[in-house]
Amino acid sequence: MKTLLATILSFLILALASCPLLVLGTSSVPEPLLDVNGNKVESTLQYHIVSAIWGPGGGGVSLHGGRNGYCPLDVIQLPSAIQWGKKLILSPYDNSTIVRESTDLNLRFVGLLSGSKQCNELPLWKVDNYDASSGRWFITTGGLDGHPGAETLLNWFKLEKTNLPGAYKIVHCPSVCESCVKLCSSVGRFSFEDGVRRLVLVRDDEPAFPVVLIPARERSTSV
Ligand SMILES: *[C@@H]1O[C@H](CO)[C@@H](O)[C@H](O)[C@H]1NC(C)=O
């Protein structure tokens, strides 16, 4: 009996002792996203998503009338580097305040849409149905925020580091549903027939859209 107890105890001690090692070895919390000033990106603040490459090809992201009529609105890149586009909120699937790399996020524009026509939908990024005529998956808006799972699969985007210092690429490769069949691609740009540069999922051999995050309002500490 004593030896049995001793065996159990030593097993427990061994198990407990190896626990911290296991935790250290397997859990790696992704790094926080950093804005252009090097500050941690927070889900309570607003940002512009702007091309990391300045000059021609530059410009921030905004909304534009959809391909088949006005609604739903598509996510586009503005043509000029001095246009930063509409403000956005980045909301991690787990509601954490610090927004991290390689973590599923809702990307949602804030504020009222300009123009008289409004779409009766959230300005929340979403991968649209496959567009057979152009052979593309466009990034459009609409759908439900939060509720990570099968029914919101197309609403999640991650930001990943690129080779350009301080720049990220946007990726749609959701982890919010382990058992789901899913798309897994970077977000790039595609000039649609109307000449507007729309955001789409790109093939592995096509360039992703390198972006930086510019805070919408400078922090009050800079007074
Ligand atoms: C995140 O917030 C929403 C809305 O308040 C809530 O329904 C959900 O349970 C939260 N999720 C987590 C992982 O805390």
TrEMBL record:
- The name this protein carries in UniProt is Miraculin-like protein 2
Instruction: Show the GO MF annotations.
Output: endopeptidase inhibitor activity
Q: Which PROSITE patterns match?
A: PROKAR_LIPOPROTEIN (PS51257), SOYBEAN_KUNITZ (PS00283)
Q: At the top level of its lineage, which domain of life is listed?
A: Eukaryota
Which Pfam families does this entry report, sorted A to Z? Answer: Kunitz_legume (PF00197)
* Signal peptide start-end: 1-25
Which organism does this record belong to? Citrus unshiu (Satsuma mandarin)
Tell me which UniProt keywords the record has, alphabetically. Answer: Signal
Q: Which InterPro entries is this protein grouped with? A: Kunitz_inhibitor_STI-like_sf, Prot_inh_Kunz-lg
